[in-house]
Amino acid sequence: MRILTTAAIALALSAPVLAAPPTKPARLGLCAACHGENGMARIPGAPNLAGQKLDYLREALHQYRDGRRNIPVMRAAVGPLNDAELDQLAEWFSAQTPSRAAP
Ligand code: HEC
């Protein structure tokens, strides 16, 4: 009995680790033309975002929105988004696996 209980607790605790990557953000379409849905850039000059550190992506998005990074295409893309939307996008791209395959 005790072993079963321990196993059940271990399973419950490990569940979040096994959880699927975040669901697609509603605003992903704003970014996909340049960065790809999977975070592998589709146009020259756009950076790959797949697998980038979550805190870095989140901070970069805030910097564009606030104008601390003054890049017109990115300011236009994130200007209308709220903090929760920026977080979802940062989590999405951070959770993607970088690939070398052509887009
Ligand atoms: C029209 C093309 C375009 C669109 C649309 C676009 N981006 Fe970008 N993005 C760029 C370019 C170009 C850069 C590089 C800007 C720079 O030099 O800082 C960039 C930079 C970034 C960076 C910083 C990466 C780094 O390594 O510092 C992040 C994060 C990012 N974009 C996320 C997004 C998200 C999220 C969206 C959708 C809301 C989006 N972008 C929409 C072109 C685009």
Automatic annotation (TrEMBL):
Molecular function GO terms recorded: electron transfer activity; heme binding; metal ion binding
Keyword Electron transport: yes
Short name of one Pfam family: Cytochrome_CBB3
Official protein name in the record: C-type cytochrome
Domain named Cytochrome c: residues: 9-97
Keywords: Electron transport, Heme, Iron, Metal-binding, Signal, Transport
PROSITE patterns membership: CYTC
Stretch forming the signal peptide: 1-19
Entries under InterPro entries matching the protein: Cyt_c-like_dom (IPR009056), Cyt_c-like_dom_sf (IPR036909), Cytochrome_c_Oxidase_Subunit (IPR050597)
